[in-house]
Amino acid sequence: MAIPEIEVGAIAPEMPAMFDGMKLAAVATILYVIVRCLNLKSPTASPDLTYQDTPLNRFLLKSCSLLTREYIPPLLWGKSGHLQTALYGKMGRVNSPHPHGQRKYLAMQDGATATFDLFEPLADHPTGDDVTMVICPGIGNHSEKHYIRTFVDHSQKQGYRCAVLNHLGALPNIELTSPRMFTYGCTWEFAAMVGYIRRTFPQTQLIVVGFSLGGNIVCKFLGENRANQEGVLCCVSVCQGYSALRAQETFLQWDHCRRFYNFLMTDNMKKIILSHRRILFSGSSDKVTDADMSRLFTATSLNQIDDSIMRKFHGYSSLKEYYEKESCVHYIHNVDVPLLLVNSADDPLVHESLLTIPRTLAEKKPNVIFALTLHGGHLGFFEGAVLVPQPLTWMDKVIVSYANAICQWEKEKATCQGGNASEGENCTAGATEALLEHTV
């Protein structure tokens, strides 16, 4: 009996120390994983800007100071592009407002019915002018989404009328009236909305805004026909991918969980398509076969849905043709109005290789500013101190601030040109210097 007592006595003091070491190692491992997953060691920074040195761009960057100031996301989770994206997608915005508007219905030539929501301004515009934001949401989105409601409410309070396109088939309570729904780059419905605004408010000036897929649509709309740029003061595109053809391979990769996001969006697209199956796949539609329907049910990527269903709404013979013709990369160089392109470096949906497109464009065209934030995810851009984000995001404020600066620039230019100056160039130059001095 004495021998085991001596052995236990010798081992017992060492056991707690061993367990303490294991606990310490487990805690350290968990903390390391948290720090890596939340990207807590990543610094905050101002957006990386690409632009040409022109009087207008200098004025815009001084007036819209958010583009040159440090963007600070919430400390505990805001540096994770995945959490920024997830919170935008699932929780929307904090204390999301409920702006009140009127729903408009527009009959299209092919029998489809486009809808958009019109929201009147809640204050006078700073310039005293009539200015309308024409807004195109992201894939499968509409005016009732939280991020759209928050942006519209903020814009209304700054004196902007807002017109928000509801993508064809996206609203759950609106039936389709023809065997067609929205596609990656179809501009028909957006053009119809813009046409309505121009006819109804002939004196208004337009600010064009697109989010994600909507960014592709608005840039393609402006670039495919220069007449579409008449009356447009500027365009802002946020978190788009520019080229579906280049993006399709990256969207099947697992890095940054891109393949997982692809699967989630595919599942959402399935639900939208199947909710309209009676119209889309009725006997009057000969574009989609039973085999296509089978491929729809088993699809695990957007590419598969695009190939079997979406491209056929417009008669494209192949997926490659569909992506080439529907991507704004082939049209965006025709856009001559001031163009702000915004992306986030930690956007899990947009591969970094796609960002050479806006960067190269901004290097070549004087009307383009490309802003790349270090954080923000996909349409997140939350701001805040530690945990709870602010109701308004950096994205909301930047778009309105940029639009305000453009309106101020155009107002001063119009005042100058409307005077009795015999030399317009000298007048414009003088107004430019005055504006730049005013913002210093």
Automatic annotation (TrEMBL):
Keyword Membrane appears in the UniProt entry: yes
Cell compartment(s), UniProt: Cell membrane
Pfam families the UniProt entry points to: Abhydrolase_1
Keywords: Cell membrane, Glycoprotein, Hydrolase, Lipid degradation, Lipid metabolism, Membrane, Serine esterase, Signal-anchor, Transmembrane, Transmembrane helix
All residue ranges annotated as the AB hydrolase-1 domain in the record: 132-385
Chief location category: membrane
UniProt name for this protein: Monoacylglycerol lipase ABHD2
EC id: 3.1.1.23, 3.1.1.6, 3.1.1.79
Cellular component GO terms held in the UniProt record: sperm flagellum; sperm plasma membrane
Gene name tied to this protein: ABHD2
